[in-house]
Amino acid sequence: MIGIARHIEYLLLHHGRVTLPGIGTFAVGYREARLLPDDSSFLPPVRSVEFHPDECGDDERLLRSVMRSGFISRDEAARAIANEADAIRRTVEAGDDYRLGRLGRFVLHNGQIDFQVNETNFVEYPRLGFAPVEVQPLEEPEAENETAVTVEDKTPDRIYISFPRRILRAAAVAAAVIVFLLMLSKPINTPDTTVNYAGVLSAELFGPSSTVQASVDEAVVDTTTLAPNTVSVEAEAAHPATTVTEAGTTANTYYIIVSSLPSKRLAEQQIECFRQQGISCDLHIYETPRKARLYVASFGNFDEARQYLSQLVREQPLFENAWIMNAGD
């Protein structure tokens, strides 16, 4: 069962007209408020449900409503509506009444299917207006008893702006979804391995004098006097040794790069940060005049490097942005 009565009630409220194929057309009639010819009674506006058995042309409103509510195809919805129409026709021809929700019931009248509307159906009843009121004409006052009445213009103190509740609910749901997506836009506890070059430069130029002097001393040190495998004492005591490879010492070698930093000192600090996050694999430094890059392995063949990179990304999500660098380029 597809609840044909519910669909017809909804379509009458929102469109004022709906066709049940093979049975007839339902329509909502409207009569405006009027004053009786004798000026004694004022009748309110009235809405009424009308049924036209001769109008059987399908306007497809009912078909689309059934498709949307049941998430079914056009053919399935058409078959379901046809089955409902056949059930109505068989019930009425058998001499019984077929009740259509709160609207009314189908009956057999003079050998033809007719529809009797309930007096308290939800389409008409809430919109009947006020009961008829008897209006008594007033006598016109005498001229000598008339007094001038001065009407002062009043400025409203408050202005009320009405918004449909449906729009407010939709806006609230949209705002909640946006906030939720913003919360999920960046994974929690994911380290940021990128370098803020502007921040590093500011720290080097405008930091304390001891920090500036340390940076200057580091820049003055002759790199040719450093051994290739020089590491700090603290790092050597806690983790495997860090190898420093200078640019130009290797050619046609493929490195798996996991981070790029502007100096060797910052690269060593990044290694300590990785160690604190649970990274136990060997981390090496590939040093160039302008950058220091961290790599986890090197290969002489590109295919081997690519296979290792695929395995590294699967096993260590922290290195999902790792890439391959050719030292010969």
UniProtKB/TrEMBL annotation:
<feature type="domain" description="SPOR">
    <location>
        <begin position="248"/>
        <end position="326"/>
    </location>
</feature>
<dbReference type="GO" id="GO:0042834">
    <property type="term" value="F:peptidoglycan binding"/>
</dbReference>
<dbReference type="Pfam" id="PF18174">
    <property type="entry name" value="HU-CCDC81_bac_1"/>
</dbReference>
<dbReference type="InterPro" id="IPR040495">
    <property type="entry name" value="HU-CCDC81_bac_1"/>
</dbReference>
<protein>
    <recommendedName>
        <fullName>SPOR domain-containing protein</fullName>
    </recommendedName>
</protein>
<dbReference type="InterPro" id="IPR007730">
    <property type="entry name" value="SPOR-like_dom"/>
</dbReference>
